[in-house]
Amino acid sequence: MQVIRDPLEATDIADPELRTLVQKTIAALSEDYPYDPDVLGYFVIVQPGDSLATINAQIGFDILANRWTGIRYDQPGYTQSFEVLDEHAGYFEMVFVLGDDGYGIEVFIPKTEGIDPDLHAMCQRYAVAANANGI
User: Where are the beta strands (DSSP E) in the chain?
Assistant: First the structure.
């Protein structure tokens, strides 16, 4: 798992598509004020082999369940607690806004082997095509 809390860390993202996506997002968040992860939030890049337990520990809740009800995505009564789940060419982008102040976490899930099958299934089920501008 790669965690990005500083704009300079985004240059360390190996995949060019994802690096550009994260850099564009940071630029959009920085239009009025310098990017501050303590105010705006941070980015999590899931990598092959990351367990759900590791992902959940990093973001602070079960990524497969509604944050308030605990109901999993594959159970009756599930409602999503993410704000956005966009599908890009090589990634899914899941955005959670955690507070009224806009603080959030963006989780990027690659469309590759080695990603938890339930996480991929949830993304495939609920994702919508990303905006044409890539943000």
Answer: 2-4, 41-45, 84-87, 91-97, 104-110, 128-129
